[in-house]
Amino acid sequence: MTRRLSDLYAPYGRCDKCGWKGQDWAFKYQGLCSKCYKQWRKERAEERRKLKLPNENVEVADGVSVTRNVRDRLERRAHSDVPLTRRSNLAEWCEGIGLCMSLIAMLVLIFTYNFYPKYAPLLVTCTVLGFVMARVGNHIQVDENVKRMPIVNARLEELALERQRKSDETNAFYASPEWRLIREQVIKEQGRMCQECGRRIRNDYDLTVDHIKPRSKFPEFSLDNSNLQVLCRRCNSAKAATYDESSMTPEKSKGLHREH
Q: Would you say residue 179 lies in a domain?
């Protein structure tokens, strides 16, 4: 096995898998040499990948199907959009206070029973009362969640339908003859050079035309030449759907702020 000069001061040991003896930094982690350690990490990543549920299509609403990952993301957003009721918040507070009170009373009872036995009935009462408060709060939370889930599911369907509508509108826009015409004009004007990384784009698949101001937030600039730039697919994918006014050049900023 080939070793680098940087491994001269690495810890010395024997690989538990292949038996190689020498100096290697990987011995500090799993008792394996670098080659076996990398193979072990790949096997562990493969085992974790097999434990995950397959990312298959799941029907969310009538005629609307999304992947499992998208459904989980929409479900989290639906839960955040539907606020908890005051009764549910009060029940959560009651459960937390009850658990803390019962735990503190139990600890005080254990450590002070031999010194102050006359306070034992009071501490036992506080412990029982705390457990009762926690149990009542938990029961109220379960009841409120049963009432809240239909609202969350309705909101989930709304989000799925809205996402489907936006997807259809986006596909229709990028398939329109107006977009194809202005896309060809921008490519002719700017050339096949990525405006972000400066790399020349040779493959047609990597050639994309990006909206500087996101089309989802500024639809009025969708077909504006000054709002379009040529990017490679990697830079386009890495570009977030946000708009930073300070990052624009004066020429682009002047062109985008003219009257339409």
A: no
Dihedral of CA 218/222/227/228: which sign?
positive
End residue of a domain, out of 173, 196, 227: 173
Query: Residues 164-195: pLDDT tens digits?
Result: 998 899 899 999 999 999 999 999 999 999 99
Residue 231, amino acid? L
CB-based contacts of 85: which residues, under 8 Å, 6+ apart? Answer: 144, 148
The length of the chain in residues reads 260
Helical (H) or strand (E) element with 20: none
Token output for 137: 């709060």
178/168 Cα distance (integer angstroms): 17
Helix (H, G, I), strand (E, B) or coil at 83: coil
The answer to whether the CB of 192 falls within 8 A of the CB of 155 is no
> What's the domain count of the chain?
3
Whole-model pTM: value is: 0.60
Domain assignment present for 178: no
Query: Can you give 217-257 as a three-state secondary structure string?
Result: CCHHHCCCHHHEEEEEHHHHHHCCCCCCHHHCCHHHHHHHC
Six token digits for residue 196: 């972000």
Q: Which structural domain, as residue segments, surrounds residue 241?
A: 186-256
Q: 82 to each of 106, 155, 156, how far by Cα in Å?
A: 38, 8, 10
Element (H, E) at 90: helix 86-112
